[in-house]
């Protein structure tokens, strides 16, 4: 529509003016925000943009391939794919505090960017998909001092020695506006209406210490949950339960409980399912998913993911709980 068309024209002009002939690098995470930022900046400056897609080993199932197909193959965006799984896992070993994990993941990201930006001649800007609610939450955190809510790694200053200026073209937009913008820029509907995914990824969905083994189990459980949400249609609205929820995912609990399988006793891990409905992600209700859907997801996870023998559903609202478990 013309309003979004005008917005894009204005944003494109402003990005071109800001950046001039400089090169820009952008960290593509697979989430909606960085994807829309990449599409917008690519529209403005084309080949002056290089995306750096860091696989920290904490992404969802098949996410790497999906991101590379969409941006590199379909849109012709320059994307450098870095597999930094071992580096991240090494740094996270033995660390169980949520904020400490976020700080490590954020720090590793910056380090990978420094290395990659060093390879891109004339890189002067680091673009990020920071949106308005991120800005608000960070401001609130500053005022509260020690009572930090969460350190979103994609908000805030960069180390002095990085020598890159921040380009954040989505800073004034709410989530629904970012999605509209993505559609107007030609991104696929399924991608743009994908649930948001936090920068630290599965790192904050594996409670306590992060291990590759846990990430592998969680990825498979999460993919089953998402698949069932997408394929289960609510009769009243005609929409899928994926579209009826704002965010849904599985959480790995490093707790073992007893179960039975055949004539054997099992002693395996627990997965919690989280699904919420919200407008602004500042407050949220737990989603009243149909019991048969929950039952199907539980059966499939327990039958298909060896190592998980119990599935629970989170019925906590925000506040007092947060959407993520860490
Ligand atoms: P909470 O858990 O605070 O989450 O209710 C609100 C929204 O923010 C996302 N989230 C993050 N996003 N880095 C991010 O980029 C983070 O560290 C982070 N922590 C939470 C969360 O997924 C939800 O959409």
From TrEMBL:
Gene Ontology, cellular component aspect: cytosol
Superkingdom of this protein's organism: Bacteria
All residue ranges annotated as the GMPS ATP-PPase domain in the record: 2-194
Broad class of enzyme this protein falls into: ligase
Binding site for ATP: 29-35
Pathway info: Purine metabolism; GMP biosynthesis; GMP from XMP (L-Gln route): step 1/1
GO molecular function list: ATP binding; GMP synthase activity
EC number(s) recorded for this UniProt protein: 6.3.5.2
Keywords tagged on the record: ATP-binding, Glutamine amidotransferase, GMP biosynthesis, Ligase, Nucleotide-binding, Purine biosynthesis
Reaction equation(s) it catalyzes: XMP + L-glutamine + ATP + H2O = GMP + L-glutamate + AMP + diphosphate + 2 H(+)
Record-annotated membrane-spanning stretches: none
Function: Catalyzes the synthesis of GMP from XMP.
Assembly, per entry: Homodimer.
Name this polypeptide is given: GMP synthase [glutamine-hydrolyzing]
First and last residues shown, out of full length: 210 to 535 of 535
